[in-house]
Structures are given as C-alpha cells and as structure tokens.
Amino acid sequence: MFEHIVNEANVPLSRITTMSVGGPCRYYVVPKSVEDIRFVTAICERFGWKLLIIGNGSNVLVGDEGFDGVVMHVGKGLKEYGLQDGELYAEAGVALPRLAYSMANEGIAGFDFMAGIPGSVGGGLVMNAGCIGKEIGDVVSSVTHISDTGEVITSSAEELQFSFRRSWFLERRHIIVSARFRAEAASDPAQVMEATKRAADIRKGKFPINVKTVGSTFKSPPEGPHPGRLIEEVGLKGFVIGGAQISTVHANWIINQGSATASDVKRLIELMQTTVAKQLGIQMEPEVLFV
Fold first, then answer.
1. Is 102 an active-site residue?
2. Which one of the listed residues 58, 167, 216, 220 is annotated catalytic?
3. Does the pLDDT at position 2 exceed 70?
4. Fold of 227-290
C-alpha cells in the first residue's frame, strides 16, 4: 500500500514509545517529505483508516490492544534543521535538546531551555512544552502544517493560541511539518552553552533518567499546585501496579520497570488522580495523551 515509503505492518508500538508499552498498529510508516505525508493522509481518508502521528514517542500512552490504523512516525523521518535568513528552521522530527545544543554551538541565544525537554519539535509545539519557566511558544515565529484535507498551511505563532501545555493543534487533526524560530546572536556564546548545560542538568537533577517513561504524567502549573508534591503527600510515591511504578525520584513520573502494560500505567494514573482528588480536593489534569 505504501510501497515508496518506509513501512511495516503490525508493528508493536512498544518499540517506538518511550514508555515501551502498547500493542500493534495496522501499518507503520516513516515519511521523508511533505508529499509523503500528504500521500499517507490521502490513503487514510480514502479507506477510512485512523491515523496516529508519533514524534519521538514521549508523552503518549498507547493501549495494549494497539491502534487499528496507520501510525506515521514523523520523528524518525523529518529531521532537517538549520539557520535560514536569520531564523532557525526545524522539521517536526528534530529532538529539542539537539536544537538547544546546536544553537549554543552557533552562539545563538534563546534555546537553552529546550535542553531540558525530552521531545521533538512537532510534539513540543502541540503541547507547548516548556522547561525552567520558558515554553516553545515563546520563541516560535511560524509553523507549517498539513490539514486533514491535505492543504499545506503556514500559521503565525499568534494564530496558534499557545497557552500552558496547550496549542491550537490539540483540538485538530493537523500534522506539523516544520517550524521557524526567532534566533538572535548572543553577546557571549560561552554563556549560552553554560545556560544550555545548566537547563539539562536541572532536568537531570529533578527527574529520573535512563528509564522507560512518558515523562510528566500530570500538568504542573508554574503557580502550583505541583502534582509530584500532591502525589507524594497522599502517600503514593513508589507505589507499584503490575510492572509500573510511581517514581521514587519524582512522583509525577511513572516508570516501566520492565514488564509494565499500558493497563498497569492507566490504573496507576487513575489511582493518582482519584486519591489526590479524594484526600486533597484537587483535580490533576493529565499531560500524557491517551490513544
């Protein structure tokens, strides 16, 4: 069906998600261009197949039954980036920490916070990802995306309604292809690299590393209350269901200990949410996206 695009059938999604859980999909495809994406979306529309876009596989929880449709792994195929006409151009699959360090090496300021975000450009834009008080929506100037009818659109940052862990894309079936970011030469390039390393170190110091996880389970508003503290306050830090554990390093993270299923993870999320609501009267909003 997708002969000219890298593809496989019945691929376990545990292979491409950072939590390493999730059943198989009908087709798995890796697009290399805008035309590839338009072709796949047209095929899905023609046959009535569901379509799931994956960036680097973080912040998403796929069920054990899998996904009865096409998974398009943009994070593996669209990885070009570079400075163009005074702006940073980056395709949707580029890892945000890679951008941070690349810009620091170029002596470009303003991207240091991305070193602390374990995600891709596309996923970061959808969720308006952030770290150390700065969000991706603060530095983006425009985003090119493909509508559900195949139209290629470029929208300004103002049109995309960025707010805390939200964007215009969350409510729509548009596919992000690339983005442009404001870039300014730093007065002291060494300071930019130092700030970039500091952002990465802050993340490493606060959160578990080298583990299988989606990242933050619940949204953590800058003004609080912070979910990790709430979950710890109700006594759930370290709690285990099946092969999934609430991290002992940071209680807003769930860790796959090696044998976790998506069901284990979902049950933990529900336990965290209901226990905090019952004991503290606070409703925590999930940051992870359920498929």
1. no
2. 216
3. no
4. 3.90.78
